[in-house]
Amino acid sequence: MTGGATWRSRLSVPWVVAVVSAILLAIVVMAVLAPLVSPADPARQTLIARLRPPGYVANGFVYRFGTDELGRDLLSRVIWGARASLVVALLSVAVSLSVGALLGMVAAWKRGWIEIVVMRLVDIMLSIPAILLAVLTVAVLGPGFGKLIIVLGLTRWPRYTRVAYAQTLQVASLPYIKAAELGGAGSLRILSRHVLPNIAGPLLVVATAEFGLMILFEAGLSFLGLGIQPPQPSWGSIMSSGRQYVERAWWITLFPGAFLFLLVLSVNVLGDWLRDRLDPRSRNR
Amino acid sequence: MAGYAFWRLVQAAIAVFGVMTIVFVIMRLAGDPTLLLVPEGATREHIEALRHELGFDRPIAVQYVAYLADVLRLDFGQSVVQRLPATAILASRLPYTLELALGASAIALLVGIPAGVAMAVWRGGALERLLATFVVTGQSMPTFLSGILLILVFGVLLGWLPTSGSGGLSSLVLPSIALGALSMATFARMARIAVVDELSKDYVRAARARGLSQGAVVVRHVLRNAAVPVVTIAALEFGNLLAGAVIVETVFAWPGIGQLAIQSIQSRDFVVVQVVVLFVSVIYVAMSLLADLAYAWLDPRIRLHG
């Protein structure tokens, strides 16, 4: 198939990759340095300065992104929101990747009933719409930062398991694994030292895609009031309260929304680029 | 075909059973499920009484079997807030969500498929790049952001369309676009891949050699063959739309089952939340079954080898 690159990997041209890398880096730096770069305390309310437009000046302080419904500095809240977004996405990917990869490798290595149970469970988990699974679990456990990570970590492992399982099956039949086994290495040692490094690439590709998705999930759940709880800033919850004031104060939803969009777009484009680099076959898909 | 259909049906049944089990487990993750089902501020005696009434003081295995039996009889219990059967509440909200999902499907199909075909036919041109950028943008934009942007532009700035609630066709437009955007991107991509695949086949070259114009080949032959994969994913997408309704209905204050789920979580009405999750998951499983069967029926190669 000539020229059959996907329309998304058409964006994997060098200058686009450079631009999105710069955007991603800027957002990460902003999140890490939030206490330093944030112009004001994101929780400080100034009730007489509610819903002021971007550029509003009071007492010599410039509200560059304007203020929200409680008179808080929107720019500071957006900066701290980046932190919430990235930390939740990073930790939930770490949890689901660890759980998923371990289950997939063990299922492929041990076979037997473990394989049947784990892979059936994967099929079933994937047959429940992801957002509903997360909504139900958060509803039962209650909202909050830590619980959000647990919920996302424990509902998002099946995709990693599928990849780890398929890859381990391939690797396990290779001669060097047999050699290690004959050399007396135990299962744990073989899986961690010999199998894992060889299946890390495909797992990383899934992890990148999931990272973008987790950013959207955090924002979506926080938007629904099920994620990070106010007054702690999160892009989703800022937009949720901004929804009520959208007719009078567009900036409350637009600024966090723009950052969210740029972050997810950057992660998606970089993910595609990474996939093309790690797996040349996918270029023609 | 019969063998394949039977096997696929068994798989779907296992998935439904699994979904029921997972919901049962999740409802017990926080410990005593009675606490999820009592209204806030209930007395200790009230909680004890309800625990006994609902059977949560029985062994877990007995509870599980009783739960499966109830679900199979479509008896999900009463809403603790509204004092009505949960299924009745679900049924009263369902028409709104179906209306919204149909609106979203219409937009996704009517915009997505022509866009995909155009990207395939004029491959490598400026139009393809433009459409591709448009589609990628749609894909990276969360539903609640595109929903709010639509409200901002068409509701607030231009004042053309209502921005919340349900009432008449005009109120359906914005939520349908917001909900359908992601499916539209999927249809565009599938249609593009399918048409590009067909265009590279020998019969297209033969038809061109006989003197048919490119347009005639596409309309008379290519579209018909490319329709197979595209039609089958329509069923899958419909299931996704029902799940996506949770967010879109919250943004647009649309009184469907998605809004019902979120409102029920806020009022701690878990009987209702459970029904919504089970219902949408079963539809989801049924739609993927339908998609596979339709694909097998339309494409004999799968029917014979499956």
TrEMBL record, chain A:
<dbReference type="InterPro" id="IPR035906">
    <property type="entry name" value="MetI-like_sf"/>
</dbReference>
<feature type="transmembrane region" description="Helical">
    <location>
        <begin position="249"/>
        <end position="274"/>
    </location>
</feature>
<dbReference type="InterPro" id="IPR050366">
    <property type="entry name" value="BP-dependent_transpt_permease"/>
</dbReference>
<feature type="transmembrane region" description="Helical">
    <location>
        <begin position="203"/>
        <end position="229"/>
    </location>
</feature>
<dbReference type="InterPro" id="IPR000515">
    <property type="entry name" value="MetI-like"/>
</dbReference>
<dbReference type="Pfam" id="PF00528">
    <property type="entry name" value="BPD_transp_1"/>
</dbReference>
<keyword id="KW-1133">Transmembrane helix</keyword>
<feature type="domain" description="ABC transmembrane type-1">
    <location>
        <begin position="82"/>
        <end position="271"/>
    </location>
</feature>
<feature type="transmembrane region" description="Helical">
    <location>
        <begin position="130"/>
        <end position="154"/>
    </location>
</feature>
<keyword id="KW-0813">Transport</keyword>
<keyword id="KW-0812">Transmembrane</keyword>
<keyword id="KW-0472">Membrane</keyword>
<protein>
    <submittedName>
        <fullName>ABC transporter permease</fullName>
    </submittedName>
</protein>
<keyword id="KW-1003">Cell membrane</keyword>
<feature type="transmembrane region" description="Helical">
    <location>
        <begin position="84"/>
        <end position="109"/>
    </location>
</feature>
<feature type="transmembrane region" description="Helical">
    <location>
        <begin position="12"/>
        <end position="37"/>
    </location>
</feature>
<comment type="similarity">
    <text>Belongs to the binding-protein-dependent transport system permease family.</text>
</comment>
From TrEMBL, chain B:
<feature type="transmembrane region" description="Helical">
    <location>
        <begin position="143"/>
        <end position="161"/>
    </location>
</feature>
<dbReference type="Pfam" id="PF00528">
    <property type="entry name" value="BPD_transp_1"/>
</dbReference>
<dbReference type="Pfam" id="PF19300">
    <property type="entry name" value="BPD_transp_1_N"/>
</dbReference>
<feature type="transmembrane region" description="Helical">
    <location>
        <begin position="270"/>
        <end position="298"/>
    </location>
</feature>
<keyword id="KW-0472">Membrane</keyword>
<feature type="transmembrane region" description="Helical">
    <location>
        <begin position="12"/>
        <end position="30"/>
    </location>
</feature>
<protein>
    <submittedName>
        <fullName>ABC transporter permease</fullName>
    </submittedName>
</protein>
<dbReference type="InterPro" id="IPR045621">
    <property type="entry name" value="BPD_transp_1_N"/>
</dbReference>
<keyword id="KW-1133">Transmembrane helix</keyword>
<comment type="similarity">
    <text>Belongs to the binding-protein-dependent transport system permease family.</text>
</comment>
<keyword id="KW-0812">Transmembrane</keyword>
<feature type="transmembrane region" description="Helical">
    <location>
        <begin position="100"/>
        <end position="122"/>
    </location>
</feature>
<dbReference type="InterPro" id="IPR035906">
    <property type="entry name" value="MetI-like_sf"/>
</dbReference>
<feature type="domain" description="ABC transmembrane type-1">
    <location>
        <begin position="94"/>
        <end position="291"/>
    </location>
</feature>
<keyword id="KW-1003">Cell membrane</keyword>
<keyword id="KW-0813">Transport</keyword>
<dbReference type="InterPro" id="IPR000515">
    <property type="entry name" value="MetI-like"/>
</dbReference>
<feature type="transmembrane region" description="Helical">
    <location>
        <begin position="173"/>
        <end position="191"/>
    </location>
</feature>
